[in-house]
Amino acid sequence: MTQEQYLPLAGRRAIVTGAGRGIGRSIALALAEAGATVGVTARSAEELEQLVSEIKAKGRESLAVCCDVTDPEQVRSMAQTLQAGLGGVDILVNNAGNAGSHKFVDHPDELWHRMLTINLTSVYYVCKALTPTFIEQRGGRIINIASIASRVGDRYIAAYTASKHGVLGLTRALAAELLPYNVTVNAICPGYVDTPMTDGNVRNMMTLTGKSEEQVRDFLAKTSPQKRLIAPEEVAGLAVYLAQDIAKGVTGQAINLDGGGVMS
Ligand code: NDP
């Protein structure tokens, strides 16, 4: 056996949504480092192409397909193309998502529908497109990047919170339904992670509060008992664990990764 064949995900094929930057990019790279072939998807081609080059430089195969995960037709086509290109799929990471905030009085309906569609309905579409393969092959891993907002409520993020609570509901229902087929379905629930999405949140909060970037970042860090933002690589490490054979007993779970803020 070569050294490569000893890697925990050698021979596995993964699909990561929202892989162009932030958490999804870290997960795609970490899965590749663990030996997997990785199909990546998002809307921006340039970021995906750069990522594919980096994965290939690690000696793994990789393929990119542009797709808006809120469009069921595009999702079906992306799933077919990536499965054909990778030779199948063993691991699905539903990571694509977005955050938006507004006080509840005068909450824009557009924001409500946008949050539900990008954070929850998209996960439904992608799972629907790939679940038949997992059932047929009697095995697979589905890892949903939810949020600590899946576990608790907070001010000004009603739509985001409802969408991420929904991701947990879908995770648990699917875990129960796919149990007989050796498919595990789990959710990772991070607190604030240092990504471009958080950079955007910081800019919004600066505008709304008149505070400096340093003050806003300090405020976000202090929402965690560890007084720091989570690094995307920490989320990736947990995803790689859940993708492995050793995690076969873990299903239907929501794992908090928030520096100890929520302990249930
Ligand atoms: P980023 O905004 O940094 O990256 C999001 C990725 O998703 C990009 O690659 C983006 O690419 C892609 N994406 C966004 N919309 C779509 C779409 N409609 N179709 C396909 N791809 C899309 O986000 P993060 O890395 O911060 O977040 C990733 C996930 O983690 C999200 O689900 C988020 O809710 C969750 N999360 C994030 C936390 C944080 O503090 N950052 C905390 C807890 C959870 P493109 O725009 O090119 O499509």
From TrEMBL:
Q: Which InterPro entries match?
A: NAD(P)-bd_dom_sf (IPR036291), Sc_DH/Rdtase_CS (IPR020904), SDR (IPR050259), SDR_fam (IPR002347)
Superkingdom is: Bacteria
Q: Which UniProt keywords apply?
A: Oxidoreductase
What's a single GO MF annotation on this record? oxidoreductase activity
Recorded hits in SUPFAM superfamilies, A to Z, give:
NAD(P)-binding Rossmann-fold domains
A GO biological process this protein is involved in?
Answer: monocarboxylic acid metabolic process
Q: Which PANTHER family match?
A: 3-OXOACYL-(ACYL-CARRIER-PROTEIN) REDUCTASE, 3-OXOACYL-[ACYL-CARRIER-PROTEIN] REDUCTASE FABG
Q: What family is this protein classified in?
A: Belongs to the short-chain dehydrogenases/reductases (SDR) family.
Kindly provide the name given to this protein in its UniProt entry: Short-chain dehydrogenase/reductase SDR
What are the top taxonomic ranks of the organism?
Answer: Bacteria, Bacillati, Chloroflexota, Ktedonobacteria, Ktedonobacterales
